[in-house]
Amino acid sequence: MDHIISALIHASRTGDLLLLQEIIDLNTNLELRDDKGYTPLIIACYNHQTEAARLLLRSGADVNGIDTGGNTALMGVCFKGYADIAELLIAHQANVNLLNGNGGTALMFAVMFGRNELIALLLQHGADLTIKDNRGMDVLDIAVQQGNEQGLQLLKQHQPINQ
C-alpha cells in the first residue's frame, strides 16, 4: 500500500481531520481501499469518527461504497451501533436496502446485534422487511433466532398487512 493510501486510511481511522483534508486537497481518489478492501469512509464510520465521515462525504466519498464482502458503511455502523453515523449516512442518501455478499442488509445487522434504535431508524427510512438473506431468512426470522424480542416487536409494527 503506498504512502498516500496509508495516510488516508490512518487519517480516516483516527479522525485526523487536518491530515484528511490535506489528502483530499491532493484530489486523491476517496474510493481507494486498504489491503482488507475497506474504503476510507467505511473505516471512519466503523471507528466512530463522525467528523471524518462527514468530511469524506462532503468531499465526494461514495456513501454506498462496499468492501470486499459487499458491506457498506451503513452496515458497519448497524453492526457497531452508531446511530449518529447511521443518520449521517442516510442523510447523504445511503441505500438502506443494499445487500452484502451473503444477502444481508443493514437492517439484518441491526436486528442480529440488538441495535434496536437503529432498527427504528432504518424502518423510518424505508428498510425492507421482506428481503431474505442467502440462508432464506428475513429480519423477523433473524430477530427470533437471536432472541431480540424488542426488535421483533418493532419489526412487527412495520410489517406489511398482507404478511
UniProtKB/TrEMBL annotation:
ANK repeats lie at residues 36-68, 69-101, 102-134. Keywords: ANK repeat, Repeat. InterPro entries: Ank_repeat_dom-contain_49, Ankyrin_rpt, Ankyrin_rpt-contain_sf. It comes from the Bacteria. Transmembrane segments: none annotated. PROSITE patterns: ANK_REP_REGION, ANK_REPEAT. This is Ankyrin. It comes from Pedobacter heparinus (strain ATCC 13125 / DSM 2366 / CIP 104194 / JCM 7457 / NBRC 12017 / NCIMB 9290 / NRRL B-14731 / HIM 762-3).
